[in-house]
Records
---
Amino acid sequence: MGFFLETLLGGLMVGMLYALVALGFVLIFKASGVFNFAQGAMVLFAALAMARFAEWIPALTGITNPIVANIIAFIGAALVMFAVAWLVEKLVLRHLVNQEGATLLMATLGIAYFLEGVGQTLFGNSVYKIDVGMPKDPMIAFESTFQGGILINKEDLIAAGIAAVLVGLLSLFFQKTSTGRALRAVADDHQAAQSIGIPLARIWVIVWCVAGLVALVAGMIWGSKLGVQFSLATVALRALPVVILGGLTSVPGAIIGGLIIGVGEKLSEVYIGPMVGGGIEIWFAYVLALGFLLIRPQGLFGEKIIDRV
């Protein structure tokens, strides 16, 4: 029982990180109705900015306190992502209002390649580290309840807590604020939203800023765990089954989908992996997502689209 709970907790913590990355997809889709293939590049670009700023700030300012340096680096990286959001709206999205979804999709692909290229030019292509002070050593919990206790990774626990807080704040933002309601209106119909006075340009800047902040937090956490390297952009691919499972338009769906995928990967790898030779953790999420596409294409919490003819 102890080992099962240990695996379950590990899956829940990883699932919260998947949910955090999936939120970036949901945010952009809710505001523009297009799947944002640039989300992985945004995670990479934000992580690169923070890692390099954390290196440059002590050398340029003489600040030796790592906590202060990381806070300044985080703020600097957030400002960079806000600038990216403004440029995306001004140079790309503003000229694609009311265009077909395929056109917007191709635009996000172009943004992805552009961010990867600019990131390599500005910040280099080496492997960098982000050290935000999260403990790396595991701990043993519930020793008195289960024989041998339950092994918990402190870094994963803290990262899952940060992701949970951010997810909760974003859920409140969408449900309780006028800007959140405006985002939903823009996603439903660009022309109708404009006709009732919703400033489309401002809404898109806001949502890309929020998505950039989410990408920064996700990049900081994954960069701390894996190091900041260009393969970090593929982390977003692990979130694709999450948004398919939870629904492209649902923030709660991203959370539930992330938890289901995280737990499913861990349990399947531990209990089914030995029967099939291992490696099930790599493809389990995609097979599960494929099954949902066949049975419920809009996901668990996605809105069912009805076309009337």
---
Amino acid sequence: MRRLTKQQAKKNMMSLWRDKQLILMAIPALAILILFNYVPMTGLVLAFKQFNFKDGLYGSSWNGLENFRFLFMSGDVFWRTTRNTVMYYVLLTATGTIASVMIAIGLNELVFKRSAKVMQSIMILPTFISYVAVTFVVSALLDYKNGMINAQITENGGKAINFYMQAKYWPLILTLVNLWKEAGYSSVLYLSVLTGIDQEMYEAAQIDGANAWQKLRYITIPMLTPMVTIMTLLSLGNIMNSNIGLFYRVTQNVGALYPTTQTLSSYVYGAISGGGGAVANYGISSAITLYQSVIGFIMVVVVNLIVRKKSPEHSLF
């Protein structure tokens, strides 16, 4: 058994030497991964400390689970932000996936491929616009006095709406902003899958008398299902995280909108910056971050196990 182990080790070393160029190319990416993803994890000790700048990260006194106790006992704020975070994850993931798939299918079905490339470029463009600029665009549309939407409402005899003081409108507003900014870029992945489908499958279906809807239902959508499943599983790790630019910048961190716009991530950002009605407490902020990470990890593992049981070829691991 020992001799077999030595042979296996020698075989592994030979494989590493054979692929030395690839390993050398991977070293910088691996170093960046460790530097930016694993080294910062040491900061999670803040979740169990009463942090102060004088003593520093490791010199601050331990307070056990006090930060978590404060977190879970904070009442409406914590549960409201958790509810909003999960709600927006489901809403934005569902609408974003549907919109991206529809855009990909539409672009793939265009007869004039040059037009498809132009339209694809136009749809991808909003992705590269910063959320600071998006904030000004949204404000120009929704401003109470000078907004374009309120101008149209008043011109037609209606009463202007103060969007930044009424939280009920913002789930729809944020969903539309997210679709406009992200759906075009996300459609590229699904479009790459569609372009790789063997066209003989469509030709055979057409010979058998299948119409456009039947080809879409029995060929296109099943071919897209694995990619949709993988992207959903990958996104589950961020189920408790949200886009700071969307939920903090676009809403301009207006307190009146918190019931439907404040998420865990925007709360942490407010806590770190000392704004948004949150206490500038790094220990509590770290506790929230650890809570988000643990829930995300559990969701990925559990859902992947379910998918692997139902459809093994669609699971991540």
